[in-house]
Write a structure and sequence with these properties.
14 helices; alpha+beta; binds P-hydroxybenzoic acid; FAD/NAD(P)-binding domain; 6-stranded mixed β-sheet; about 40% helix; binds arabino-flavin-adenine dinucleotide; about 30% strand
Length: about 400
Amino acid sequence: MRTDVAIIGAGPAGLLLGHLLGAEGIACVVLERQTPDYVLGRIRAGVLEQVTVGLMERLGLDARMKAEGLPHDAFNLADGERYVRIDLAGLTGQQVMVYGQTEITRDLMNAAKGRGLEVIYGAGDVALHDIESGAPCVTFTRDGVHQRIDARFIAGCDGFHGPSRQAMLGQGREYERVYPFGWLGILADVPPCNHELIYANHERGFALASMRSETRSRYYIDVPLTERIEDWPDERLWDELAIRLGPEAAANIVSGPSIEKSIAPLRSYVFAPMRHGNLLLCGDAAHIVPPTGAKGLNLAASDVHYACEALVAFFKQNDRDAIDGYSDKALARVWKSERFSWSLTRLMHRFPEDGAFERAMQVAELDYIATSRAAQTSIAENYVGLPV
Ligand code: FAS
Ligand code: PHB
């Protein structure tokens, strides 16, 4: 096969990029290792920035999101009994959209065939070749048949464990912080305890009350890295959530059987640069954030916005500078989101190595945020998403 851009990975980054390039008349093929159901079964992000909503609008794929998504004007930081409400709409004029990553991926998947976007699922042994040449290619096997795609560019949208970053490891630098805890998440068909998200810093640990709809809730607590799912039967998790979220929220928690429960490790990670030769990295292939700031999926979207801009400039105006400028442009936003996610994680979690001074700093910062419009505005403009 021959195409303009070979995209590896059919998660949100790969599918968004495929649709955007297709809409510009740039040929691409998406290669995905898993099945569609497997990709949809991974329960991940829940909060979309306006940048991500805007890309779906630009593609004309926002109808279900607008019908089923929940626009949110604010979220809350809970510190024991106290709630600090961050008024996103009042402070920035913007909202965030609560709409699960599964749903946005489903919308992108369902539109692929009708728009002529070729997505090859079940592509095994994907390997990248000649990324420094003007004629890179990707090989893979499907149904036992070894296949090859010749392309002008390869877009590595294959997540943190995919082959794309590995293909350029010697050409860049890694920046990493691994956190001493993970997030145990539960999805349940019960109404949310609150109409806005609550991030709680309790002496027993972190908790987050989120949702997917008016009838489906998503909750998290932080747990030591030694914990396993088997250590957390539903009942124990519901009890812990009630304690950490505080009595006001606890009074409204409706518990029920988990339909998904998983522990995600937390890390901050950046690989720079995000391009080498004719290979561009987008999304988790290039960077990871702790989910505290709800940035992971949204950074994938802004990377894709920049990558599409650069590829369109190349194919339509033969502008190679745009390709060369992709990494710096994407990283400028990546680093600001990394900082925000790291900062909010530091503020809202108890770290095992922290002592009385570190806890006093958290209390002082929450006091400052509670009483400063400037501090709340800073949090709000990062949470709704910095401009692209
Ligand atoms: P993805 O990982 O979503 O997609 C990469 C795709 O590439 C996958 O479909 C994979 O199967 C495919 N692939 C990998 N290797 C391949 C190969 N060799 N050949 C072909 N295909 C290959 N973000 C938030 O904002 N909030 C959250 O609460 C949140 N929770 C998360 C929980 C977990 C467990 C994880 C891992 C991430 C979470 N994230 C969260 C971040 C997450 O939403 C990512 O930012 C988002 O999925 C990024 O999308 P992609 O870059 O497309 O990567
Ligand atoms: C979610 O609903 O899954 C969610 C919301 C906000 C976050 C992280 C996860 O910061």
